[in-house]
UniProtKB/TrEMBL annotation:
Matching Gene3D superfamilies: Carboxypeptidase-like, regulatory domain (2.60.40.1120), TonB-dependent receptor, beta-barrel domain (2.40.170.20)
Listed Pfam families: CarbopepD_reg_2 (PF13715), OMP_b-brl_3 (PF14905)
Keyword Amino-acid biosynthesis belongs to the record: no
Name recorded for this polypeptide: Outer membrane protein beta-barrel domain-containing protein
Residue ranges constituting the Outer membrane protein beta-barrel domain according to the UniProt record: 369-774
Localisation: Cell outer membrane
GO CC field: cell outer membrane
Alphabetically ordered keywords of this record: Cell outer membrane, Membrane
Upper lineage: Bacteria, Pseudomonadati, Bacteroidota, Flavobacteriia, Flavobacteriales
Length: 797
């Protein structure tokens, strides 16, 4: 390989010549962008260097040439044959898509050396260059996310600071997994195979407007063709009860075919604890519910892609799972006299819920590159079906303060709930680059149908008695049509802008079979997005963005199934819930790659939550979903990363925000305002050479604050992990402890019908875990398709 050439010396005579601009997009044989390829301009007569640049993350380049002599444009990248073209016509030229052919030989190439920043600010996203991070190196994708900006990882659960939801993509393809399934999948991706992580806090018009959520896109490094890989994984977690997990993943690529598959099985249980208190005028209600939530789940995935030609590809992907997440509860509620402080009565309740969940989805996709300019057409057709069957038996006895049974107080009932959800969708995307601007437009059709059946049987007399007043069959259909358009343009080297709009029309029909009632509703909404960035120098980046989002209720919130905790307490969904809308504005400043400052504002309209409606006469507590919240939040997010010592990297995060919430219903607080402070410190230590042993410790602290119309107490969490890499880093062993101090137990306090209420939930987060991941074979880059009906799937949970 030739010596590295640094592009800094240009001839004096070239400064007197005319300047022409040449642009293009560099891709591989599978039409995937090649980032950081060398683009060299050489003299046609003696091969001397004139100038050079490298391609960006999307494979694009724009190079200015100051010469009136013939020259050669050379594009090279390791593992590919050089591409050459002699230029004799000197005028601004768009070269379109340039395809590089893979080579098995070592390239003798000219290299443009360019230092990539640790954190880069693009017009609509933050880019975290994992390969430049000491803290992230040597681990897995979950380790990389722990040190990525705006991302929080607690107990292997991923969230985006300042957002109510989040989705993960790999190579721009959505991963339709959540919870433990998602974290287990991310543990199979080594950080050595990750090029960068994109953090998108305000998704562009191309993405569905559903949810006040952000996106995380994990870009993998280019891999070799004609190879295979198998990943074996297992873990053991000990909380109150043990949970085990085993899985295997396989990928294979040969010529134009690629195949990927994965199977994962989890079995175990955890012990959540729920505490609920209500201050009645004459009595104090104190309820404690001990649960055991079982997990018995098998998840599977299978997909294939075929490259028909250099311009055309087609793929099919199937994902499914089957689980029995049963729940066993022991509930004890006491009523104490406020004057005498003596026990008036006691309610003892036992319940068991047998649950069965089935999920199946299929995606078919087609991609066609129309011309060499870069026009790309993508079509996706999706189907999924979700079935949830609940069979809940509850029994309750009431006792006096002296322990004697209250006559005729025995209550026993059976709830049977069946929910079937079916969705079909079709999505079309078009990338349309022009000479001075890039366009992106498309549309989407979605058809969802939900069938809810609720049966209530009273067992108190010892005989099952059907209660038609608490039984129903509710059918819900929702059809959505969407169109979107966006435009992206650079104004010189320092200013970049992007604007877009998404239109969604939704038609809803709800029908109750028992009451013979039908409700129809339709609405059309527009969701604009706008982005502007300014880069005055390599040390400073300023950006501003705005977006409007919609948050539709999950299908479970629309389910009228009544969940009895006792004869005095139950919860139920609301089929008449409507969507909420959010406006988001962010002003960001990044300094020297490692200090991020973000001032943000969000405004929520017609927000929905479960409301506890308390009847002080009967002591009945009804938890019911309603639209009633309007919230404005203004906040400041700060993150700084640094290396205080060799082999040690540290990240400090602070998020402070002010919340102002209003209610439109009389049973809650009418308004509540207050400040919140969240802080994080995490450090990674390299304990052995070549990063074969790594130690991580992190601490999260959140102050007393407000959550919509409730006040919450402070929480904290201390986590630590020790990671070993053996067998040429193909075997990864991790020992971790989460919530070591058992201090993540916030309490929420509010009002219902002027009665003071509070609840405190602990989700059994203190645990110890040992996990193993063993990789066999060579890593390959197998395309996983972005599922276009994912917003409907997200509403299952």
């Amino acid at each position: 390989m030739k010596d590295t050439i640094i592009i800094a010396l240009l001839t004096l005579t070239s400064c007197l010549a005319y300047t022409q601009t040449y642009q293009g997009i560099v891709r591989d044989s599978q039409n995937k962008a090649i980032a950081y390829a060398n683009v060299i301009v050489q003299n046609a007569t003696d091969d001397s260097l004139i100038t050079g640049v490298i391609t960006d993350e999307e494979g694009k380049f724009n190079i200015s040439v100051k010469t009136d002599l013939p020259f050669v444009l050379l594009i090279s990248f390791i593992g590919y044959e050089n591409w050459k073209k002699q230029i004799t016509i000197h005028e601004d030229t768009d070269l379109g898509i340039i395809s590089l052919v893979e080579s098995n030989n070592q390239l003798d190439e000219v290299v443009i050396r360019a230092e990539k920043k640790l954190i880069e600010r693009k017009v609509d996203r933050l880019i975290f260059n994992v390969e430049n991070s000491i803290a992230a190196s040597g681990g897995d994708a979950l380790d990389a996310l722990k040190v990525a900006p705006r991302i929080r990882v607690q107990n292997d659960e991923i969230s985006m600071i300042g957002k109510s939801g989040m989705r993960v993509l790999v190579n721009n393809k959505l991963i339709q997994l959540a919870g433990d399934d998602l974290s287990n999948f991310l543990k199979t991706i080594r950080t050595d195979d990750i090029k960068s992580i994109e953090v998108i806090t305000n998704p562009p018009a191309k993405y569905a407007a559903e949810g006040n959520s952000g996106l995380i896109n994990i870009n993998l490094k280019k891999a070799k063709l004609n190879s295979w890989n198998t990943s074996l994984r297992s873990s053991y977690q000990q909380a109150t009860y043990p949970t085990g997990n085993v899985g295997v993943g396989f990928t294979y690529q040969k010529n134009k075919w690629s195949l990927f598959s994965d199977v994962n099985y989890s079995n175990g249980s955890i012990a959540p604890l729920r505490r609920n208190k209500i201050s009645y005028p004459e009595q104090f209600w104190n309820e404690r519910s001990n649960r055991r939530d079982y997990k018995d789940l098998i998840a599977y995935k299978l997909g294939t892609n075929y490259q028909i030609s250099d311009k055309t590809s087609i793929g099919v992907q199937y994902i499914g799972n089957y689980g029995k997440p049963d729940i066993v509860e022991n509930n004890r509620a006491t009523l104490t006299n406020n004057l005498t402080q003596e026990l008036d009565s006691l309610i003892s309740t036992r319940a068991r819920t047998n649950r069965e969940k089935k999920y199946n989805s299929i995606n078919t996709n087609f991609t066609y590159t129309i011309d060499s300019i870069g026009k790309i057409l993508s079509v996706d057709i999706d189907f999924f079906k979700y079935q949830n069957n609940d069979n809940r038996n509850v029994s309750s006895n009431n006792f006096l303060g002296d322990g004697s049974l209250i006559t005729d107080s025995f209550f026993s009932a059976q709830n049977i709930g069946k929910q079937d959800i079916t969705n079909y969708s079709a999505n079309l995307d078009m990338e349309h680059p022009l000479k001075n601007i890039s366009l992106n437009y498309g549309g989407r059709l979605s058809f969802s149908e939900t069938d809810n059946k609720v049966v209530f049987n009273d067992l108190s007399s010892g005989v099952s008695v059907f209660d038609p007043s608490q039984s129903d069959e509710f059918n819900y259909t929702e059809n959505t049509q969407a169109l979107y358009f966006s435009a992206h343009k650079n104004f010189g080297d320092k200013i970049e802008a992007k604007i877009g709009v998404r239109m969604e029309n939704t038609e809803i029909k709800g029908q109750s079979i028992v009451s013979n009632q039908t409700n129809n509703n339709s609405y059309t909404e527009f969701f604009p997005t706008a982005y502007l960035s300014y880069v005055p120098s390599d040390m400073h980046t300023f950006s501003l963005n705005y977006g409007r989002r919609i948050d539709r209720p999950t299908f479970s919130w629309l389910n009228p199934f009544r969940w009895y905790s006792s004869n005095f307490s139950f919860s139920e969904g609301n089929p008449n819930l409507t969507p909420s809308f959010t406006h988001n504005i962010e002003l960001d400043y990044t300094y020297n790659d490692n200090w991020i400052n973000s001032l943000y504002f969000s405004s929520l309209e017609d927000g929905f939550e479960y409301v506890t409606i308390v009847d002080e006469t009967t002591n009945t507590q009804r938890l019911f979903a309603q639209n009633f919240i309007k919230t404005n939040i203004i906040g400041l997010y700060e993150m700084i990363s640094f290396e205080p010592f060799k082999g040690v990297s540290t990240s400090l995060v602070m998020n402070v925000y002010y919340s102002d919430s209003r209610s439109s219903i009389p049973v809650t607080n009418q308004s509540l305002t207050g400040w919140n402070l969240e802080s994080y410190i995490g450090s990674d230590f390299v304990l052995y050479k070549d990063k074969k042993i790594l130690f991580n410790v992190s601490y999260i602290l959140a102050s007393d604050g407000v959550d919509n119309l409730d006040r919450n107490t402070a929480l904290s969490q201390l986590d630590a992990s020790l990671k070993f890499f053996l067998l040429d880093k193909n075997l990864q062993i991790t020992l971790s402890g989460n919530d070591i101090l058992k201090s993540n137990q916030p309490e929420y306090k509010g009002f219902s019908n002027n009665l003071r209420t509070s609840f405190k939930n602990y989700y059994d987060t203190r645990n110890f875990r040992v996990s193993l991941v063993y990789n066999i074979g060579k890593k390959i880059d197998v395309e996983e398709r972005e599922i276009k009906n994912e917003e409907e799937k997200d509403r299952i949970n």
